[in-house]
Amino acid sequence: MLRRSPLFAGLNEQATQDLLTAMTPLRMERGDELFHEGDPGDRLYVITEGKVKLGRTSSDGRENLLAILGPGEMFGELSLFDPGPRTATATAVAETQLVGLTNDQLHAYLSRHPNVALTLLAALARRLRRTNENVADLVFTDVPGRVAKALLELSGRFGRPVEEGILVAHDLTQEELAQLVGASRETVNKALADFATRGWIKLEARAVLLLDLDRLRRRAR
Ligand code: CMP
User: Fold this and answer.
1) CB 151 within 8 Å of CB 201
2) In this predicted structure, what is the pLDDT of residue 204?
3) How much is the average pLDDT of 134-145?
4) Model pTM score
């Protein structure tokens, strides 16, 4: 799983082993918070198993989810590359295993493997693209369109082909799904119920079965 992470891209066996030895493993249960928005940050993390949500809270207590990350994905690097407080709160949404690398370890590692810096830049650039797209969607796309897009994005990360379609075990509550889409729970539930009535999806507990990907893709545009 770790080999899928940008940190490990292109490393030979020895370098992979060196990096793994330097990293500290840790384990979290659903609901455990790894760090909080505003905390000082001293390490980045790579997920080996499970899911982590990255969220921000507004001054009146509303929550917005920036992303749900899964195996092979990295987070916590912003406060290392641009020293400052954590820009989001990281919470496990399923049983999760991670490995952590401290700032000092990362710097020493990058000076030995400068090529990895390019892969990290590519990962950050990809994230910026996705974030720009999300911002545009918040302005230009209606809630059902954003719900369709969120389902497709979750399926890219966590989807598994089954006989009827793609099963996406996202582990999110309806409230968390709404926070990811950036709309109220009622509006998001209405969109999901409408998709289910049309036969595009089937709702299950903390999972969704995608039955008609073409229609969802068209609705997401
Ligand atoms: P850091 O600021 O150290 O802690 C929170 C982490 O969330 C941040 O590093 C990034 O790794 C991650 N993060 C912040 N914004 C986004 C985003 N828009 N999409 C995905 N991940 C993000």
Assistant:
1) yes
2) 92
3) 94
4) 0.92
Task: Say if ligand 1 is within 6 A of residue 117 CB.
Answer: no
Residue with the nearest Cα to atom 21 of ligand 1? 67
State which ligand 1 atom lies nearest to the alpha carbon of 89: 5
1 band by pLDDT with thresholds 50, 70 and 90 = confident
Q: Which atom of ligand 1 is nearest to the CA of 35?
A: 4
**Cross-strand pairs, 218:** none
Q: Which pLDDT does position 7 carry in this prediction?
A: 82
Are 181 and 189 in contact, with CB atoms under 8 Å apart? Answer: no
Share of the chain above pLDDT 70, in %: 100
Ligand 1 atom with the shortest distance to the CA of 134: 18
Tell me if 41 CB under 6 Å of ligand 1. yes
Q: Which domains does the chain possess?
A: 2-138 (2.60.120.10), 142-220 (1.10.10.10)
Nearest to 45 by CA among 98, 116, 88, 119: 98
CA of 164 from ligand 1 middle (Å) equals 35
**Adjacent-strand bridge partners of 63:** 57
